[in-house]
Specification:
The structure is a homodimer. Chain A has helices at about 10-15, 160-170, 210-220, 235-245, 260-270, 305-325, 380-385, and strands spanning about 25-30, 40-45, 55, 60, 75-80, 95-100, 115, 120, 125-130, 140, 150-155, 175-180, 185-190, 195, 205, 225, 250-255, 275-280, 285, 290-295, 300-305, 340-345, 345-350, 355-365, 365-370, 390, 400, 405-410. By secondary structure, the first copy, chain A, is an alpha/beta fold. The first copy, chain A, folds into four domains: about 10-25 and about 180-325, MoaB/Mog-like domain (Molybdenum Cofactor Biosythetic Enzyme, Chain A), CATH 3.40.980.10; about 25-50 and about 145-180, Alpha-Beta Complex (Molybdopterin biosynthesis moea protein, domain 2); about 55-140, Molybdopterin biosynthesis moea protein, domain 3 (Molybdopterin biosynthesis moeA protein, domain 3, Beta Complex); about 340-410, Beta-clip (Beta Barrel), CATH 2.40.340. In chain A, the strands form eight sheets. Chain A has a six-stranded mixed beta sheet, with no helix packed on it. In chain A, strands 16-13-17-21-20-18 form a six-stranded mixed beta sheet, with helices on both faces. In chain A, strands 22-25-24-26-28 form a five-stranded mixed barrel. In chain A, helix 3 packs parallel to helix 6 (about 305-325) and helix 4 (about 235-245) crosses helix 5. The radius of gyration of chain A is 31 Å and the shape is elongated. The interface between A and B is large, with 95 and 95 residues.
Chain lengths: ~400, ~400
């Protein structure tokens, strides 16, 4: 039985992944912008706001007319009119005058500050008392105070958040250039694997990986394409891989957890022109029997058939890679939310491999406590019961109870 | 000018929100399960695995036949055959025998442990040497060792993660009962607001809120329904609200940042039968001019017209509420990823309101540093430049530089 011939460290895997080219750009409507990654800087074509606006309900004034105003000695101003929303003010504020102004209203000519309504008293005779002084610019958002003309408002590589979408709307940007979403072909292989809709005969198991890997791809905004289950025969594998390479940016073949199956996948990958095997085995646990290759420039992941291993490898390597293909910087660590916790039980790990230990988190008085979810390799329930995992580095022999760890949440 | 008449604390808002009924259930296919919230416990109808399986490539043996085995004194076993994938083993392992077995293979009759291939030497004559002893159950996942019959595998209220979807596939659960997604009608109001596709005349501004609030709703898996922009006239507002209540589970009206507009919205809400005003103003900043009402049992949020305020209020109150409607427990805090950081500059806050201060995070040698993004109220760029925000509690007067804060990431 041959063993792995090119075991790579996690760092080497990330270095290989960084060598693949990112995806092409496309134009989309603003309606579909959330979560997409900008392919080009957004440069403002206008100023926001286009004119000075009030940030409060109150009165637009000349600041100098309020100097020294107090409850005891209020400033007396004549009401020049009211600023309406939706049009330019048709009034102006001269010496000794004030104009009623709503939040967001444009400042009338002559005014340079706004007194909040709380610090005014209407006298009923067309005049108000102002009981606090304001300085120039108080409660006013100046013209271009939010966005200046020609400014880079959002940089290429930014994954758009709701407020970013709002900013684009504010600037009238209704079409944007983004990186395409990664299309990932998912191929489950193995003679024992059957579709989930069928009832397994003795010896058969349902296709967990197609569903779990699809969901993982979906969770980072990728486009999973689930292919048919392929029996462990080189000819069938070859045409399945050719088909997958044709239609997708990334191919994930899962299966081959036994040595015989692994050999078939490696053989089949090697039978294509322009192949580079980056790793045949990674120094990690779970997930050692992972293949990473480039075929005609496209990345091919051969994930272990064991669902637990396949899911962990996808979490740690595939998901950050998909974000990188979509224009983000390659983060060389598992994606997602990280929390600090205190490890409840010591965990040992053999030297020479990076280990991903599943933990359940509990909130105790002093903070989060992480309890390892032990279980044999291949137990899906360990993943389902866990809230996340932590990493035992490749050269460590374990982590002692009481140490603080960073937990990557699922 | 009337002021707010029922200012609520953030805690009171959450208490009111917890009084609204959750959404109904629906059946969906497993393909669409990611991110949905289970409406019923998933109880296993079968055992996983259905029979004992090997977790390693190696040889299935009787553990007692390997006792005392070592490099110096290996145990000698006769190869009884090979376990194939996809069918039940047609061989058995008797005293002194071993069967070649791949990872995931079902244990043949008679065997009770697996020796890893690394600790065996084939002798070429149909025999192997075993150089390490195994105990019963070693490298074997027992029948039902992963999931037992009748076990609650996934509880109601669980938002399904990729591995949960995988587990459902493994159990052959192809249809699940989940909470409906919240349908949120979004109505922008204001005489100055125009669609983003139009060019603003002087005094007009583009409709940021419809886009930003839609994106926020989408970010937690809700279904935003953007309605037409409504001018600030009670009759138009009334028919827009009636229409929104008809089609959605939650109504978000944004606008009314000036006192006059706010009055219209409150009047219109009050003109419906079965109205309860929970809050007219919240003791927060930004976002004070927020209305929360129940109209015919449906929640109506009146968000400030200022995009920054509207977005912050939606982050803090609307999003956790949407998750609650969809079957999760109501978390009385902003949703999303939280990180610890050291505050770079002291921030003051008036006593009596909870303040959400936007910060930019920088990684320095000792960890994350949070720098407040200062800017006038209403500057969208403060939200775009910020990585998140932290909360200054209602009764605090600020947070000093150097203190450790929890930052909610956008």
């Amino acid at each position: 039985m041959p063993e792995f011939f090119k075991v790579a460290s996690p760092q080497q895997i990330f270095d290989s992944l960084a060598g693949f080219a990112g995806l092409a750009l496309e134009q989309i409507d603003l309606e579909h912008a959330l979560g997409r990654v900008l392919g080009r800087d957004i440069i403002s074509q206008e100023e926001l706001p286009p004119r000075a606006r009030s940030t409060m309900d109150g009165y637009a004034v000349r600041a100098e007319n309020t100097f020294g105003a107090s409850d005891a000695v209020p400033a007396l101003l004549k009401i020049a009119g009211r600023v309406a929303m939706g049009s330019l003010p048709d009034i102006s504020v001269s010496q000794g005058q004030a104009a009623e102004i709503p939040t967001g209203g444009f400042l009338p000519e002559g005014a340079d500050a706004v007194v909040m309504v709380e610090y005014t008293n209407p006298l009923g005779n067309g005049e108000i008392e102002v009981t606090r002084p304001v300085a120039r610019g108080d409660n006013v958002l100046e013209r271009a105070g939010d966005v200046t003309l020609g400014e880079i408002v959002l940089p290429a590589g930014r994954r758009l958040r709701p407020q970013d979408v709002g900013m684009l709307a504010g600037l009238g940007v209704t079409e944007i250039t983004v990186f395409k979403k990664p299309r990932v072909a998912i191929v489950s292989t193995g003679d024992e694997i059957i579709p989930v809709t069928e009832t397994p005969s003795p010896g058969q198991i349902r296709d967990i990986n197609s569903y779990a890997i699809s969901a993982l791809v979906e969770s980072v905004g990728g486009l999973p394409v689930t292919c048919e289950i392929v029996r462990d025969e080189p000819d069938l594998l070859k045409s399945a891989l050719a088909n997958a390479l044709e239609m997708a940016d990334v191919v994930v073949i899962s299966g081959g957890s036994s040595v015989g199956e692994r050999d078939h996948i490696v053989e089949v990958v090697n039978s294509f022109p322009l192949v580079e095997i980056h790793a045949h085995g990674i120094a990690i646990s779970p997930g050692k029997p992972t293949l990473l290759a480039g075929v005609q420039g496209k990345p091919v992941f051969g994930l272990p058939g064991h669902p637990v291993s396949a899911i962990v490898v996808a979490q740690v390597f595939l998901l950050p890679f998909l974000k990188y293909l979509e224009g983000e910087e390659l983060k060389k660590e598992p994606i997602g939310r990280q929390v600090r916790a205190v490890l409840a039980t010591s965990v040992h790990s053999p030297h020479g491999r990076e280990e991903y230990t599943r933990v359940k988190l509990e909130r105790e008085r002093d903070g989060l406590v992480a309890r390892p979810v032990f279980g044999k390799s291949g137990m899906m329930s360990t993943l389902v019961k866990a809230d996340g995992f932590f990493v035992i580095p490749i050269h460590a022999e374990g982590v002692a109870a009481g140490e603080t760890i960073d937990v990557y949440l699922f």
